[in-house]
């Protein structure tokens, strides 16, 4: 019996429990009992949303918020995986926990934790019911005025209602998935990659075994002079069997390759975002770029190399007994192992050379990027004769590395298998010359063994050289991979206010900071308080540590000692995301950036994108208050004008006001402006200052005296 939809609703206050039940049923990680902490923010509206996302994060899950138009609900429901959708009246919101959906039905988890099947249409109607009720009076008034037969009124009303609400945006709920920072093996398992790899290996082994039997059937027939019709049919049948096996192998290989590539890129991207900016700066931007480029090499070479090596190992496992069954028996096997040992030595040397070449390549990339970053300065200030100094030497060294690598690679993939063919054939000679006579089948098996061993060696050489490249690339890309698993300070849960007095926004006590252990501290015993609506001007000579203090307050760096409290809680307790939500900073020019995108995108980076009408209107008002009105009117695209390196080049003063507007639009409790007014003429400065003083909740401005 199909249960009524209402019986599957969870009240919003039990959303944490619904999340836990859903994770459990979907095989996602979860720690039972954590749901008890849900709703500390009142379990209502956006506070509940924050709580739920934080709870998902603490369970190792990612809850992606689904903000869509009502019209997208049908498509969303059709492809919903583990998803929590919310609806209901504002006074009593509810949640439905969808495990999976099919063409016409959805499997949902009811509040008694039972899994129920409900029709998609009914679920869709229930989710839209409350929105429709809000618009119903207007639609009813229209329907009453229309000359309609009573029998048609219902259908017209329903169609009009859907039309009215279809374009309205709606906070639908959350789609759940394993966090990209979860253990990689768990991600591979969840994505079904391990299954695909197992199927692929089995299919490869099957295909190889079938080819071997086919070859044995035809070979034996030919050598014994019994190549009859029956044998040929058996051979043809075996060869035909290979077609579906190879299709299956390629299919599974494709699935595994796409899946692994996607997960790897996702993880590396997350890792790149979590890298410490000071570490990146210390190592150089070029090294970061090099690391990111290596991700492709890890994926391509690693997957190809791993796959080919596994196939080669399967071939080797089948080859050794075949060799042992040949006329030279154990001698052939021992010779083959000796050849493998030689291959190992050559591969070891190849790996050492590859690593050296890869290091040299990274240094070159770094130098190139540094040169590109500073090319405008170099053009203006360096004599042209010095622009390319050292480049020829670096290129020559690079070519030398590459030449050595190619030479060794050719030995491994070319001469090693060929050499084995000669040695393997030679090992059969004593048997051929023996007076006792050797059975033709035994000779055929021996010959086949040598050929099989050659094929396996070729594959092994190709696989292991690729794996060597992948390992070398991994050395560079590894920090990104590991950084993805690094926990953010705090679990992202935005905790409640701490015990601070109501109007104290920020409380700093005895802060100490130094850039390197052992170096003299840049900040020593810094103590102050910032209240709501405070306006603080931080003046000091150059290099005194104003920007450093700003980065501490903004949560970009952590103090070595001392206490820094935001609304009574430190950064670890509050969580990195929560901290940044409350403090917005416009750093100095070398730390801030205009992205190659629209002016509006650059302004509204702290808000939802695509933008809502109200956000665009507020951005426009703010820009005009800051004196950017004439610029907006001058740019053909207005707020939608493309700016940045590849677009409209903003002047220094325009950029500084864009940064101010961007920070003001973050809806933070404290605004930090680091030398933002330094590039403005007196009149524009007065205007921008008035706007900032009017609009900033609490304000810290760094400036020179
Ligand atoms: N990554 C770093 N490693 C070591 N020292 C650093 C690093 N970054 C900054 N410093 C040093 O820390 C000191 C404080 O720098 P900071 O940028 O905070 O000063 P400031 O008061 O904002 O200066 P200005 O007014 O010139 O912008 C300077 O001496 C600077 O050279």
From TrEMBL:
It is found in: Cell membrane. Coiled coil: none annotated. GO terms for molecular function: ATP binding. Residues 506-705 form the ABC transporter domain. The chain crosses the membrane at residues 196-218, 238-264, 301-324, 330-352. It is a multi-pass membrane protein. Keywords: ATP-binding, Membrane, Nucleotide-binding, Transmembrane, Transmembrane helix. InterPro entries: ABC1_TM_sf (IPR036640), ABC_transporter-like_ATP-bd (IPR003439), P-loop_NTPase (IPR027417), Type_1_exporter (IPR039421). It comes from the Bacteria. PANTHER family: ATP-BINDING CASSETTE SUB-FAMILY B, ATP-BINDING CASSETTE SUB-FAMILY B MEMBER 6. This is ABC transporter ATP-binding protein/permease.
């Amino acid at each position: 019996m199909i249960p009524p939809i209402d019986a599957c609703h969870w009240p919003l206050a039990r959303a944490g429990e619904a999340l836990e039940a859903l994770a459990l049923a979907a095989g996602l990680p979860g720690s039972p009992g954590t749901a008890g902490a849900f709703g500390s923010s009142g379990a209502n509206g956006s506070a509940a949303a924050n709580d739920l996302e934080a709870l998902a994060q603490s369970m190792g899950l990612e809850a992606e918020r689904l903000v869509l138009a009502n019209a997208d609900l049908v498509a969303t429901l059709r492809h919903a995986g583990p998803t929590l959708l919310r609806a209901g009246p504002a006074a009593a919101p509810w949640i439905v926990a969808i495990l999976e959906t099919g063409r016409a039905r959805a499997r949902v988890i009811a509040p008694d934790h039972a899994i129920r099947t409900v029709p998609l249409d009914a679920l869709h109607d229930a989710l839209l019911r409350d929105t429709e009720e809000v618009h119903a009076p207007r639609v009813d008034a229209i329907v009453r005025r229309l000359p309609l037969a009573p029998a048609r009124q219902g259908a017209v009303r329903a169609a009009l209602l859907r039309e009215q609400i279809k374009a309205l945006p709606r906070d639908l709920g959350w789609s759940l998935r394993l966090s990209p920072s979860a253990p990689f093996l768990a991600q591979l398992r969840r994505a079904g990659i391990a299954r695909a790899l197992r199927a692929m290996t089995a299919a490869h082994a099957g295909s190889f075994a079938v080819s071997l039997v086919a070859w044995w059937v035809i070979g034996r027939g030919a050598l014994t002079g019994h190549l009859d019709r029956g044998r040929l049919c058996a051979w043809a049948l075996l060869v035909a069997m290979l077609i579906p096996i190879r299709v299956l192998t390629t299919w599974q290989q494709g699935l595994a390759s796409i899946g692994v590539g996607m997960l790897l890129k996702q993880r590396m991207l997350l890792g790149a975002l979590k890298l410490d900016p000071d570490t990146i700066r210390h190592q150089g931007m070029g090294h970061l770029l090099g690391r990111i480029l290596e991700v492709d090499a890890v994926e391509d070479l690693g997957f190809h190399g791993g796959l080919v090596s596994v196939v080669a190992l399967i071939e080797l496992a089948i080859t050794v007994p075949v060799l042992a069954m040949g006329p030279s028996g154990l001698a052939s096997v021992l010779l083959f192992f000796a050849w493998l040992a030689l291959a190992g030595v050559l591969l070891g040397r190849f790996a050492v050379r590859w690593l050296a070449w890869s290091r040299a390549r990274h240094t070159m990339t770094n130098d190139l990027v540094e040169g590109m970053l500073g090319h405008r300065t170099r053009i203006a200030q360096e004599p042209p004769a010095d622009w390319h100094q050292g480049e020829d030497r670096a290129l020559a060294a690079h070519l030398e590395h590459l030449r050595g690598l190619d030479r060794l690679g050719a030995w491994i993939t070319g001469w090693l298998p060929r050499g084995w063919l000669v040695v393997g054939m030679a090992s059969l000679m004593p048997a051929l010359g023996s007076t006792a006579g050797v059975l033709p089948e035994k000779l055929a098996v021996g010959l086949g063994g040598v050929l099989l061993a050659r094929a396996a060696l070729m594959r092994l050489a190709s696989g292991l050289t690729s794996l060597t490249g992948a390992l070398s690339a991994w050395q560079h890309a590894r920090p990104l991979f590991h950084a993805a698993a690094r926990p953010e300070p705090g679990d992202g849960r935005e905790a409640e206010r701490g015990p601070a007095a109501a109007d104290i926004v920020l409380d700093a006590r005895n802060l100490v900071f130094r850039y390197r252990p052992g170096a003299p501290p840049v900040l020593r015993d810094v103590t102050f308080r910032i209240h709501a609506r405070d306006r603080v001007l931080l003046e000091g000579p150059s290099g005194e540590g104003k920007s450093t203090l700003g980065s501490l307050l903004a949560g970009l760096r952590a103090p070595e000692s001392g206490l820094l409290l935001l609304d009574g809680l430190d950064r670890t307790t509050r969580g990195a995301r929560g901290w940044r939500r409350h403090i917005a900073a416009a750093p100095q020019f070398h730390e801030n950036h205009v992205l190659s995108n629209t002016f509006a995108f650059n302004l509204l980076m702290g808000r939802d994108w695509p933008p809502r009408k109200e956000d665009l209107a507020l951005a426009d008002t703010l820009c005009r208050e800051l004196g950017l009105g004439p610029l907006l009117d001058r740019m053909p695209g207005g707020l939608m004008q493309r700016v940045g390196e590849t677009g409209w080049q903003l002047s220094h003063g325009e950029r500084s006001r864009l940064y101010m507007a961007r920070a003001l639009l973050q809806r933070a409790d404290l605004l930090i402006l680091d030398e933002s007014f330094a590039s403005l003429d007196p009149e524009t400065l007065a205007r921008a200052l008035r706007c900032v003083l009017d609009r900033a909740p609490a304000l810290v401005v760094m400036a020179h005296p």
